[in-house]
Design a protein that fits this description.
By secondary structure, the chain is of the alpha+beta class. Helices cover 21% and strands 26% of the residues. A hairpin with a 6-residue loop joins β14 (289-297) and β15 (304-308). The chain is elongated and about 80 Å long.
């Protein structure tokens, strides 16, 4: 239970509730020392609750969870006075509250004691983030096996966008996670995608090597920008029909939105990818991208592993329509 911001921290009813609420946020109180006279409130709080980021402490101030001499202390830049009493309710960050097990069906293609390979459906967010603090693949992994709680990101070593479907490898032990992260960094994990783009993509086979970074005009987009991180995508056109192209793509790097950005930079955004200039078509209302093949060496045995996953129904129907003879 979290007290509403307008409820006094020392309310007797609240104190009684503390006795039965095991997850009640911690309260801390301190008197402003002479050495801190004139200091910004948010900087003072860092010395009281240094395990939280300054930005989160500023949020607690804005939400009324910080009091000076018993009154809500709105304004992180407010200057404190020596002798003032500061009270702070340490409400956890949204992110910390997001890392909880949530049982969900997982399409597991392979599993052993070291790793599992899942076929992620379109629409499933991989990792908790703003706007998606629950119902993610990470939550499902925490419920699937106990060891996930001891691993960074529950063993997730690479991601797929929310609306991209297909194969992902997830570590189940720390040694496996370390090995897989190193293999991805060394470009030893082969990831192959199927994509459907607007326009007739030419030539039949080519590579796009262009650096990718945050779009300076929009924080939600990536773009080909000077000074971005090096990125390479190999592209093969499988078929072209009625203003659309069926493509196979191979990643040599794993930049955010890489295939989407690279193809859009060539004037061929993915079907359904509204963020990068695509439009719904061929029955696709989400970006037409599917991770269909994954190849890597097993982190423990070294055995070469290869997995393939057929695309989901919406993508499969659009793909087959493009492969029909003219």
């Amino acid at each position: 239970m979290v007290h509403p911001p307008d409820q006094p921290f020392d309310d007797p009813a609240a104190e009684a509730a503390d006795d039965v609420a095991a997850d009640e946020p911690e309260r801390r109180a301190a008197e402003v020392p002479a050495a801190a006279h004139g200091l910004r409130l948010d900087k003072l709080l860092v010395s009281i609750a240094g395990e939280f980021s300054r930005s989160h402490l500023q949020t607690l101030i804005e939400q009324g969870y910080v009091r000076l001499d018993g009154e809500p202390a709105r304004g992180a830049s407010r200057r404190v006075r020596a002798g003032q009493r500061v009270e702070l309710l340490l409400v956890p960050t949204e992110e910390s509250r997001a890392f909880v097990p949530q049982a969900m069906p997982l399409a597991i293609v392979h599993e052993d004691g070291h790793l599992l390979v899942v076929d992620k459906p379109a629409g499933l967010v991989v990792h908790p983030a703003a706007g998606h603090w629950s119902g993610t693949l990470l939550n499902g992994l925490l419920a699937h096996h106990r060891g996930a709680a001891a691993l960074p990101r529950a063993g997730i070593v690479h991601r797929l966008d929310k609306d991209t479907s297909g194969l992902m490898v997830v570590a189940k032990t720390l040694p496996a996670m370390t090995a897989l992260v190193r293999a991805i960094a060394a470009r030893e994990v082969q990831r192959r995608y199927l994509a459907i783009a607007h326009g007739e993509v030419v030539p039949d086979v080519f590579s796009i090597e262009a650096p990718i970074g945050r779009d300076p005009r929009s924080r939600v987009r990536m773009a080909v920008v000077g000074g971005g991180k090096a990125a390479r995508t190999d592209v093969e056109r499988v078929a072209a029909r009625e203003g659309f192209s069926a493509l196979r793509c191979a990643l040599h790097t794993g930049r955010t939105h890489q295939i989407r950005v690279h193809l859009a930079s060539r004037g061929h955004p993915l079907v359904g990818d509204v963020l990068y200039g695509g439009a719904p078509a061929l029955g696709m209302v989400r970006q037409a991208l599917h991770a269909h093949r994954l190849e890597f060496a097993h982190p423990d045995s070294g055995a070469e592993l290869r997995f393939e996953a057929a695309p989901p129904a919406d993508f499969g129907a659009a793909w087959r329509a493009l492969l029909q003879p003219r």
